[in-house]
Amino acid sequence: SIDVETQGEVKAKNQIPLTARVSGHIVAISDQFEEGAAINQDTVLVKIDDTDYKVAVVRAEARVAEAQVSLERELANAKIKKDTWDQKKGNTNPSPFALNKPQVLEAEAKLRAAKADLEEAKLNVQRTEIKVPFNGRVLSRNIGLGQYVSAGAALGQVFSVDVAQVRLPLTDLQLSALRLPLGFEAQADNAPEVIFTTNIGRSQHQWRGRIVRTNAAVDQNTRLSYAIAEVEDPYGQAADGGTPFAVGMFVNARIKGFEETDTWVLPRDALRQEDTVYVVDQDNKLNIRQVDVYATTADEVFISGGVQTGEQVVTSAATNVYNGMLVEPLTAQPSGTEAGVVSKL
Question: What order do you get walking across the sheet with 339-341 strand by strand?
Answer without folding.
Answer: 286-290, 276-280, 312-314, 339-341
